[in-house]
Design brief:
The chain has 342 residues and is an alpha/beta fold. The protein is 46% helix and 20% strand. It folds into two domains: 158 residues, Rossmann fold, CATH 3.40.50.1970; 179 residues, Dehydroquinate synthase-like - alpha domain (Dehydroquinate synthase-like, alpha domain). The strands form three sheets. Strands 1-2-9-6-5-3-4 form a seven-stranded mixed beta sheet. A three-stranded antiparallel beta sheet has the order 10-11-12. The protein has a two-stranded antiparallel sheet with strand order 7-8. The chain is globular, with a radius of gyration of 20 Å. It starts with a strand and ends with a helix. The structure holds nicotinamide-adenine-dinucleotide (NAD) and zinc ion (ZN).
Length: 342
């Protein structure tokens, strides 16, 4: 097992890579605890849960709401949760985001920890202390910055994950290499097929390196005042694609990364060969690099995005593979690049 520490302003977090669900109880402080999980994860793994009350949430992004949080508050009251109760989220990004938010707000904040059960949550969602829910049509707009005490990343739990859920994780892994570490990007190029087959050694390295990259960025900028924005590479355009087409997050981010790479090339930052490398790697892990979409609607959604400042949009571009920069892009510039990509 390998441990990576994140030092938050209020609390710190240990990411335990290669730890097992079976060891969860050793990390939970003595006393009361409550588990928050979703229907699927409960079905697969309830037999291995330690003996605490379980609060179950429904499946999918449509459950990531204040209503769900309210129902969690109600159930916390029912089981007699108080200031000393420890909250454990066992699940993917949705469970972790909701459990972290409910724990951070119930009685002004309970301590909490996660068992992260999807590739996406192991390499991304459960690292970094952002918790929250969607509100109206805005994603993750209500939330807190608060670090879980621990995050257990048990690689064996990924074996039950549907294949299409893995793609989301690979999109974030490629993003991490692209923005911060050329050698890691190259590793992924070399071992893509072993990664797709969930080879233990390759997955352990991917989770470790992705967590290290994200943790290092979060340690320098927990509150997303500067450098942390680089983690949004592929996401500015990707979120708009996700909203309009309803495509999975990983697919949308994949398209977003292609668009951001094309913009980077247009600005003279990234060479054509590097754009091709990115596209080839995305294809290797079965992520789309082209998508049918109503371009005007996507642009509209983008204009409404919360990151928009005036007529310019903050975009994360690449200087080269392994190095990201934050640049302001005009809608017109983006439209040009989209025309070229057609
Ligand atoms: N907080 C952050 O920094 C951050 C970062 C990235 C994404 N997110 C959020 O993460 C969410 C997406 O997370 P996700 O992709 O993990 O989705 P998810 O939590 O919905 O999990 C995907 C599906 O896999 C199932 N599942 C989970 N673990 C399983 C397992 N081990 N075996 C079998 N099935 C399993 C779930 O029940 C669900 O149906 C989004 O809401 C996104 O906003 C948050
Ligand atoms: Zn993402």
């Amino acid at each position: 097992m390998k441990t990576i520490d994140i030092k938050g302003i209020q609390t710190s977090s240990s990411i335990l890579i290669g730890e097992k669900l079976d060891s969860l109880q050793t990390y939970v402080p003595p006393g009361k605890a409550v588990i928050i999980t979703d229907t699927n994860v409960r079905e697969y793994y309830a037999a291995q849960f330690p003996p605490y009350p379980v609060i179950e949430i429904g499946l999918g992004e449509s459950n990531k709401t204040l209503d769900t949080v309210e129902s969690i508050y109600r159930q916390l009251l029912e089981v007699g949760a108080d200031r000393s109760t420890f909250v454990i989220g066992i699940g993917g990004g949705i469970v972790c985001d909701i459990a972290g938010f409910a724990a951070s707000t119930y009685m002004r904040g309970l301590d909490f920890g996660f068992v992260s059960t999807t590739l996406l949550s192991q390499v991304d969602a459960s690292v970094g202390g952002k918790n929250g829910v969607n509100y109206q049509s805005y994603k993750n707009i209500i939330g807190t910055f608060n670090q879980p005490r621990f995050v257990i990343c048990d690689p064996t739990m990924l074996k039950t994950l549907p294949t299409n859920e893995l793609a989301c994780g690979f999109a974030e892994i490629i993003k991490h290499g692209a923005i911060a570490d050329e050698a890691y990007f190259a590793y992924m190029e070399r071992y893509a097929s072993r990664a797709l087959a969930l080879d233990d050694e390759v997955i352990a390295r991917l989770v470790h390196d992705s967590v290290s990259i994200k943790a290092a960025i979060v340690n320098r900028d927990e509150r997303e005042k500067g450098e942390r924005r680089k983690l949004n590479f592929g996401h500015t355009f990707g979120h708009a694609v996700e909203k309009i087409t309803g495509k999975p997050h990983g697919d949308a981010v994949s398209i977003g990364m292609v668009v951001a790479a094309a913009l980077s090339k247009e600005r003279g930052l990234l060479d054509g060969q590097s754009v091709d490398r990115l596209i080839a790697l995305l294809k290797k892990v079965n992520l789309p690099v082209h998508i049918q979409m109503d371009r005007d609607k996507v642009l509209d959604a983008l204009k409404k995005d919360k990151k928009r400042e005036g007529n310019q949009i903050n975009f994360i571009l690449l200087d080269k593979i392994g190095e990201a920069v934050v640049e302001e892009i005009s809608i017109a510039e983006l439209e040009n690049v989209l025309n070229d990509l057609r």
